């Protein structure tokens, strides 16, 4: 009897071998971390806080899935301690302002005491006489003028002396046009002293023809306005202390009757104002 032919199932040699299934090893009486009950989580204190309840992952997830499901809350960066440089700067500013305030108070108090003791007053000036030595047109049609002015300077202070320094000027103007000017002498004026100053003023104006016609027309009225300006650098002496230089700026508005050469001119009005300029 012929052997029965056995038919064996064909095996696919190219297919990968099946992987053996190994059951997870879980100790007896313990549950997997993926199957922790809600009661055990409550006993362990997991998910009891409001933050945990808000971000609590659903049950039944693997550890890797749980890690991905829980949002990561970044920790707040630690604030670096503020340096003490700002406080040092504030202290320095406070000290500087305090010192400045103290200096200002000291200066103010010293000035007040000096004012009470010395009672400073501005010097006064008056024009005694004005004489025209020369007033004529030259060949180039410029106007040449030469005036002799006599001024009285009065120092009313009892304890303050005045040093008139080099560089003082005195000038005569007519309608914003300078006729002549001269230098003030250098001298010292003592306490409550009156000093008469003689100044020779000379000058030449290029608009001679126009200026001479205007002066002749004004002379017919018998009132010619002139402006005498003073610029005198002085140093004040308080007691034995000589202070820094200041400038005395003055202006005298004069009205004279005529501008006839070689004659004394009658001064009909004399209004002077003076001020100090540091």
Automatic annotation (TrEMBL):
The protein's name in its UniProt record: Putative Late embryogenesis abundant protein, LEA-14
Basic and acidic residues composition-biased segments: 1-11
Location(s), subcellular: Membrane
GO terms under cellular component: plasma membrane
GO BP term, example: defense response to other organism
Occurrences of domain Late embryogenesis abundant protein LEA-2 subgroup (ranges): 151-246
Assigned keywords, A-Z: Membrane, Transmembrane, Transmembrane helix
Main location, first listed in the record: membrane
Transmembrane segments: 95-118
InterPro entries named in the record: LEA_2, NDR1-like
UniProt membrane topology term: Single-pass membrane protein
Pfam families: LEA_2
Lineage top rank: taxon: Eukaryota
Region (Disordered): 1-60
Biased composition (Pro residues): 15-26
């Amino acid at each position: 009897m012929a052997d029965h032919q056995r038919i064996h199932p064909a095996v696919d040699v190219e297919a990968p071998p099946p992987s053996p299934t190994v059951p997870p090893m879980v100790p007896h009486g313990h549950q997997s971390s993926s199957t922790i009950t809600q009661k055990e989580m409550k006993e362990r204190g997991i998910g009891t806080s409001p933050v945990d309840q808000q971000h609590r992952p659903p049950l039944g997830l693997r550890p890797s899935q749980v890690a991905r499901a829980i949002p990561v809350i970044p920790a707040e960066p630690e604030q670096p301690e503020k340096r003490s440089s700002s406080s040092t700067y504030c202290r320095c500013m406070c000290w500087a302002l305090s010192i400045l305030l103290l200096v200002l108070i000291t200066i103010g108090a010293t000035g007040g005491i000096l004012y009470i003791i010395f009672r400073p007053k501005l010097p006064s000036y008056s024009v005694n006489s004005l004489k025209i030595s020369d007033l004529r047109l030259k060949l180039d049609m410029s106007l040449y003028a030469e005036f002799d002015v006599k001024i009285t300077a009065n120092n009313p202070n009892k304890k303050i002396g005045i040093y008139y320094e080099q560089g003082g000027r005195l000038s005569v103007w007519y309608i914003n046009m300078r006729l002549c000017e001269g230098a003030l002498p250098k001298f010292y004026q003592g306490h409550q002293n009156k000093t008469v100053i003689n100044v020779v003023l000379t000058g030449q104006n290029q608009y001679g023809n126009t200026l001479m016609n205007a002066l002749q027309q004004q002379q017919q009225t018998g009132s010619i306005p002139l402006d005498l300006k003073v610029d005198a650098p002085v140093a004040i002496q308080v007691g034995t202390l000589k202070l820094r230089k200041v400038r005395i700026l003055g202006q005298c508005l004069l009205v004279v009757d005529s501008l006839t050469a070689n004659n004394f001119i009658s001064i009909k009005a004399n209004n002077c104002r003076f001020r100090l300029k540091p």
